[in-house]
Amino acid sequence: MQITITRPDDWHLHLRDGAALAAVLPHSARQFARAIVMPNLRPPVTTVAAAGKYRERILAALPAGLNFEPLMTLYLTDNSPADEILRAAGSDFVKAVKLYPAGATTNSNAGVTDLAKCDAALGEMEKLGLPLLVHGEVADPAIDLFDRENVFIDTVMQPLLARHPALRVVFEHITTKDAAAFVAAAGANVAATITAHHLLYNRNALFVGGLRPHYYCLPVLKREVHRQALIAAATSASGKFFLGTDSAPHARGGKEAACACAGCYTAFAALELYAEAFAAAGALDRFEAFASFNGADFYGLPRNAGTLTLERRSWTMPDELAYADGDRLVPLRAGEAMQWKLIG
Ligand code: DOR
Ligand code: ZN
Question: Does the predicted model carry a pTM greater than 0.85?
Fold first, then answer.
């Protein structure tokens, strides 16, 4: 069995920089025509000038013969000036601004401590239609890790949209039935990305026979009832839900550690993982809209030309991949069976 779809895009991707960028970029470029590139580098990408340089480094690292368009984002801070938003909206390569609540995840130290401090920037984004991409978790250590998305909806997302009702918002990598319901009920200016790992796994995956760091990401995997709700959202007729892998490479040593880094590396076979989730739900007919149409439509960008084809065929995910400086990168599903293969 085969499925052919319009060439898809990845609306949430971590490409890193330098040698790591060179190692992972070909994987995404083989699968996706475009990607929204996260700005959580060290130091974070906070200006249009820095985003422009990062974009050039990405294009320089792209192997000959691969077509891939990086869509850049700015990292919102307490001090992001409204001017920078104006410059971003006027550029042809910055497509969104990312909100990391300070302390919520990898390289979020420079993130926002209080959204009230960003009101000028947010007002400008609302006026200009530049989307805010939201890591939707509170960082408060007193809040149970598994409740941080829910608490974020009540204490941050709803007040934000009350203050800026026309702000275009992408609730990134949603993980709960509550987030899916919130997005479905919100206005057309609110959408969400869903990762392959949150469609395929619930939190049990973290603990199968021992502690499994390669299944650890933020927001963390949730209960099965939430996974089911994400499947329902992704396979629904709604155009509000679209593909965003949140593929986040970390060297093997950073993952297999006493304090393991958050992030699942899925870019190597992202479409194959998503296809498995859609096939299991009996919803392959909805895959193209999720992977190739809804995101482009939300961002107001043209849908891609060309197609790619996946075939139902079993193969084994490599145990590890080459990464920066002799390090190795362990992909999600390493050494395990896959059901779909990208064939062209
Ligand atoms: O698991 C994650 N990894 N979640 C994030 O929000 C950041 C990402 C990363 O950059 O490694
Ligand atoms: Zn991310």
Answer: yes
Give start and end residues of each alpha helix (H) in 250-328: 252-255, 270-280, 287-288, 294-299
Residue with the two structure tokens 């002799």: 326
Distance CA 332, CA 112 (A): 30
Q: Is the beta carbon of 37 within 6 A of some atom in ligand 1?
A: no
Please tell me the number of Cα atoms within 13 Å of 102 on its side-chain side: 11
Q: How far apart are CA 235 and CA 127, in angstroms?
A: 32
- 71, 12 contact by CB (below 8 A): no
User: pLDDT-based confidence at 206, cuts 50/70/90?
Assistant: very high
Q: Which residues of 278-303 are buried (b: 16+ CB within 10 A; e: fewer)?
A: bbebebbebbbbbbbbbbbebbeeeb
Cα→Cα distances 110→24, 44, 77, 100, 146, Å: 25, 8, 6, 8, 23
Active-site residue among 17, 114, 246, 319? 246
Place of tokens 């149970």: 144
State the first-to-last Cα distance of the chain, in angstroms, to the nearest integer. Answer: 14
Q: How many Å apart are CA 86 and CA 290, to the nearest integer?
A: 30
Asked about 246 being catalytic, the answer comes back as yes
Domains in the chain: ranges and CATH: 2-342 (3.20.20.140)
Our answer on whether the CB atom of 143 is closer than 6 Å to any ligand 1 atom is: no
CB atoms within 10 A of CB 263: 22
How do residues 33-63 score in pLDDT, each as one tens digit? 999 999 999 999 999 999 999 999 999 999 9
